[in-house]
Amino acid sequence: MRDPTPLITEAHDRVRRQYASAIGRHRADLTTPALLLDLSALQANLEIMARGMRDVPTTLRAHVKVHKSPHIARLEVEHGAIGVGCATVWEAIVMARSGIDDVMVINEVVGPDKARALALIAREAEVKAVVDDAIQIDGLSRAAVEAGSTIGVLIDVDEGMHRCGVASAEEAVPLARRIQEAPGLEFVGLTGYEGHCSLEFDEGKRHAMARAAMDVLTGIADELAANGSPCRIVSAAGTGTWEVTARYPGVTEIQPGSYATMDGHHRRLDPRFGWAVTVLASVISRRPDRIVLDAGSKTVGASHGVVRDWNLGTYRFDEEHSIFLAGSDVPLGTGDKVEILCNYTPFAISYFDAYHVLERGSVVDIWPVMPRGPESRWLLDLLERGE
């Protein structure tokens, strides 16, 4: 793993300056809403996954869309991940610039700007992309040739989630051949995501669904090999299915993400992983039957959350307010601080500039969230300037 570039170090320095007054303060003294990262909980989660991967035939590729943090990504690699998976080319640029040598965009890349961004960052790191259509292949090839780089390409397989991806070997075989013939590209294998399995909370049923999904994925890999396109990589899984997929014959790597920071949905699937990221909020109004917090859906996202350490019913989430049922037996009043456990942490991440990194309850550092939001074309501009 290489040292971070100025892009990362400057971002870290910037947020440390912006939030300098928070460093050294106890969590209860922070201005709210604040994004909290418990470093000991994060480390514990990474160690649980590292132990779980020791005796399986697969490797770990940590998905970073859940945290958008170069600092967390580097810790994941230090705990055994071979590289990272990203949802966008912008995340891929940030992760490569953070010093991570193996970066995969686990999403279809469409459009000349995104293809060029991927091709330029492929000069600096081993970069892989995902396709399910010849148009995507041709666009990546043109960009790679122009940039003088090579992009590894995987075919996306629909394992049953019914989002992107091919559904059969008949679709995959001609795509693999087209990739093999395309200048600037290297065919490396298949990827799939059995996200539909993680909607099933019965463990036995979920595991059976995951095995069925792997039957589809590895079956297509076998057909490709028989037709002259062997798969070096067969990649799949999320936090809800990682143990089954990691042991499935023919799978070479898994790509979970939520295990690192955790959220309400995935805690129901695997409670061994603890809460590392929460949102600190203040009680701004105390009514006889409820409390109102200064963190609403624009803070924690559409999936909302619950209040840590308090068994409060959720009344409603508005844009800047969350309202929880709290009678006279709940000793919370105006000005008190509570933490929201997000039902799906990735939503909350994009609303914040930075994490308040905690050790023993106090802020020891500020880490940037990079990149925020869905569009970060300025990163392509940076690459084209050679910065």
What would you say this structure looks like, in words?
The chain is α/β, with parallel strands linked by helices and 387 residues long. The protein has helices at residues 6-18, 39-53, 70-78, 89-97, 112-121, 134-147, 169-181, 203-226, 242-246, 264-269, 297-300, 345-349, 378-384; strands at residues 34-38, 59-63, 83-86, 102-108, 126-131, 151-157, 185-192, 233-236, 253-254, 277-287, 290-293, 305-307, 313-317, 322-325, 337-342, 354-359, 362-368. The strands form two sheets. Strands 1, 10, 11, 12, 13, 14, 15, 16 and 17 form a nine-stranded mixed β-sheet that branches. It has an eight-stranded parallel beta barrel with strand order 2-3-4-5-6-7-8-9, surrounded by six helices. α4 packs parallel to α5 and α5 packs across α13. The radius of gyration is 22 Å and the shape is globular. It starts with 5 loop residues before the first helix and ends with a helix. The mean pLDDT is 96.
List keywords for this structure.
alpha/beta; 24% strand; nine-stranded mixed β-sheet; 387 residues; 13 helices; single chain
Q: What share of residues is helical?
A: 25-40%
Instruction: Quickly give the structural class.
Output: alpha/beta
User: Which regions are unreliable across 5 or more consecutive residues at pLDDT < 50?
Assistant: none
Per DSSP, what share of the residues sits in E-state strands of 2 or more residues? 15-25%
Mean pLDDT: 96
With helices defined by DSSP (H or I, 4 residues minimum), what is the helix count?
13
Radius of gyration: 22 Å
Q: Please report the total strand number as a whole number.
A: 17
Distance between the termini: 20 Å
The shape, in one word, is globular
* Largest pleated sheet: 9 strands, mixed
